[in-house]
Amino acid sequence: MHIPLQGFHTFFVVCRAGSMKQAACELHVSAGAISQRMRELELRHGQRLFERTRTGVTPTAAGAALYADLRAAFQQIETVARRDLPDDAARQLVVSVMPSFASGWLLPRLGDFARRHPAVALAIDSDARVVDLKNEAIDFAIRHGLGSYPGLASRWLMSPEMIVVGAPELLRQGPPIRCPADCLAYPLLHDRERRDWTLWLQASGSASPKARRGLAFSDEHLLVRAACEGQGLALVRDIYAGADLANGRLRKALEAQWPTQFGYYLVGLPDSFAASGARAFVEWIEAEAARSRTAPAQVLPR
């Protein structure tokens, strides 16, 4: 009798992950291959084994019964298979990162992670879009927010401060800036949502409709580059301006700083934080973030 071991194992992984895409990542095959194996298994059993949901898949009554029969056997097999593997057993670990954070903070530090954990194949997905960690082949996302992500776990990394910066020549030619309201005499450079200047000026008692005028950029790294070119004042997170402040391409226009209410968080499925390769990355990035927070001066490579 032919026993479809590959199909049974794939079924076990899909049930455990609750997602065919996540199972495809774990088994290093395409999502189409997973779907094909599940169709063949359903044909063999003569009934549906899964129902599709908004967030993934869930087993039918027949599927749940089959999973109960297979679970213990495959868990034991996986335990035996992992027994001789090193702690950093190689597999691709995919981390989604906003482009500005990737270039301004993470990229200069990645070489250290590679040296410490050569067996972990780390892949950086630099994209500002909202990713679906439950259904995409992505292990973690680093995002800027309040840390509340339903159904996911998050670890706080840092909360950079906001500073006002401008090109030295622009500041020499313009009127003096002694308080936040004085910034309104200059062109203002914005993030895509145009919220930061408005909130910053409101917090200082200098609210004005002029706070929303000026160029806007979808990426904070581009915003900093525009400030370096003298196109206006930028209100940016200090970690993105450190290198340009150090080499003189930018100057602080005002010494007052405004701590942001948001922070950067490492976000993932609760189980993702426990996997061996993932655990190595989590511990490493938390340690790097802690060093950044306690460093006396934040100067980042370009």
Automatic annotation (TrEMBL):
<feature type="domain" description="HTH lysR-type">
    <location>
        <begin position="3"/>
        <end position="60"/>
    </location>
</feature>
<dbReference type="InterPro" id="IPR036388">
    <property type="entry name" value="WH-like_DNA-bd_sf"/>
</dbReference>
<dbReference type="GO" id="GO:0006351">
    <property type="term" value="P:DNA-templated transcription"/>
</dbReference>
<dbReference type="InterPro" id="IPR005119">
    <property type="entry name" value="LysR_subst-bd"/>
</dbReference>
<dbReference type="InterPro" id="IPR036390">
    <property type="entry name" value="WH_DNA-bd_sf"/>
</dbReference>
<dbReference type="GO" id="GO:0043565">
    <property type="term" value="F:sequence-specific DNA binding"/>
</dbReference>
<keyword id="KW-0804">Transcription</keyword>
<dbReference type="InterPro" id="IPR000847">
    <property type="entry name" value="LysR_HTH_N"/>
</dbReference>
<keyword id="KW-0805">Transcription regulation</keyword>
<comment type="similarity">
    <text>Belongs to the LysR transcriptional regulatory family.</text>
</comment>
<keyword id="KW-0238">DNA-binding</keyword>
<dbReference type="InterPro" id="IPR058163">
    <property type="entry name" value="LysR-type_TF_proteobact-type"/>
</dbReference>
<dbReference type="Pfam" id="PF00126">
    <property type="entry name" value="HTH_1"/>
</dbReference>
<dbReference type="GO" id="GO:0003700">
    <property type="term" value="F:DNA-binding transcription factor activity"/>
</dbReference>
<protein>
    <submittedName>
        <fullName>LysR family transcriptional regulator</fullName>
    </submittedName>
</protein>
<dbReference type="Pfam" id="PF03466">
    <property type="entry name" value="LysR_substrate"/>
</dbReference>
